[in-house]
Design goal:
The chain has 382 residues and is mainly beta. It contains no helices and 25 strands.
């Protein structure tokens, strides 16, 4: 039976001068480059949803043990208003170049990202940037129109990197939130779209995980391309109006085209946001945020030995113990989106960390001593 252990852990970035200024860090998303270096994007901001978010790069040359702050991906454009950047995901393309996907929101005028009355979100501008030198320099951002693929009531978001398919086209998962002032119920589902021109245009919207008929929402899908070309996703599954959660679900494309998908499969993992990594020989890890129905909240990792069909749930590896550190000062509410206003950890990701498939690198954000920062943990499997 696969056994998980924490080999080492540490900090990617935390405020070096907390007595002088507020600097918090969120949403670490790392990628292993062909050179062996690890490049990560972090959102640096005053708070989880504050209007001052800047997307910065951090680089490790020693397998994730130490990190150097490279600086903003996009140079400061705050002078024109309160421009808030979200998370960023980097994909290594077949030719060795990089593509980075991110979003930004104009919050000039003091609007909150989420409308506290409707639960709708402000418009996202979807951006792509390219790099041909391992992320040292980046192109100017190019905007993509994803909202045009849906009815006017929907705002489009994403929690996943772009995936390059075997034919050179790109696949991207997106999800449907309500527009800011829309007063109707949520219809939060996960879809796939395709691009044949380097992300300038996206077409051929398909259902990936759509639970509308079963009163379910599927969101926060994060995917990876398997060795045989198929795509494997983990998703947050919830009641349609986000009042309760189901366990983490996985969903797999039937072939390498990404055009057809199997029915979402319950894993038994009691998580919300999650991410998987396949390490070979049937071994798969999922890292996830665990909040509800547990005496041990935190960030956890579980393993599968049969390519994700079943999971070893008896003894998850806890890589961030959030007991007593679940929320930011005040009690959480029961209603979304305000139920997320005070969360103190989340958005875990995981990537392979060795060529032999014996270790992985998990990243996440968390709060300790009123300081929200980003950490890493090297997970061994044997």
């Amino acid at each position: 039976m696969a056994r998980l252990s924490s080999e080492d852990s540490g900090v990617i970035f935390r405020n070096p001068l907390p007595g002088h200024r507020v600097i918090n860090a969120f949403y670490p998303n790392a990628v292993r480059l062909p050179s062996g270096q690890i490049l990560a994007t972090l959102r640096i901001a005053g708070a989880l949803y504050s209007p001052d978010g800047v997307l910065e790069l951090f680089r490790s040359t020693d397998g994730g043990r130490t990190w150097q702050r490279q600086g903003p991906v996009i140079q400061d454009d705050q002078a024109t208003g309160e421009i808030n950047y979200g998370d960023g995901f980097i994909t290594v393309l077949r030719d060795g170049s990089l593509v980075l996907r991110t979003t930004r929101t104009d919050q000039t005028g003091g609007q909150l990202v989420f409308n506290p009355e409707t639960g709708g979100v402000l418009p996202f501008e979807h951006l792509l940037l390219r790099s041909s030198d391992d992320g040292q320099n980046w192109s100017e951002p190019v905007a993509s129109d994803l909202k045009g693929l849906f009815a006017d009531q929907f705002e489009v978001a994403s929690c996943s990197p772009i995936i390059e398919l075997e034919d050179g086209s790109w696949f991207h998962t997106i999800e449907t939130w309500n527009t800011y002032d829309h007063v109707g119920p949520f219809d939060l589902q996960t879809y796939g779209v395709f691009s044949r021109d380097g992300g300038r245009t996206w077409t051929d919207r398909i259902d990936v995980a759509n639970g509308a008929k079963d009163n379910r929402a599927y969101s926060h899908a994060h995917g990876e391309r398997l060795p045989d070309g198929r795509i494997f996703l983990t998703t947050w599954a919830a009641e349609s109006q986000l009042q309760s959660d189901y366990d983490v679900h996985t969903v797999v494309s039937t072939d390498a085209t990404g055009r057809q998908w199997e029915t979402p499969l319950a894993t038994g993992i009691p998580g919300q946001t999650s991410c998987s990594v396949h390490l070979g020989d049937g071994r798969v890890l999922i890292v996830y945020s665990h909040r509800e129905g547990t005496e041990q909240p935190g960030i956890k990792v579980v393993a599968s030995e049969d390519d994700g069909r079943t999971w070893l749930l008896d003894k998850p590896l806890v890589i961030w113990d959030a007991y007593g550190k679940e929320s930011l000062g005040v009690a959480r509410t029961d209603t979304y989106p305000s139920s997320h206003d005070t969360i103190a950890y989340g958005a875990p990701r995981i990537i392979g960390a060795s060529d032999d498939g014996t270790s992985a690198l998990a990243t996440f954000w968390c709060t300790q001593g009123a300081d929200t920062h980003c950490r890493w943990c090297r997970v061994a499997i044997d």
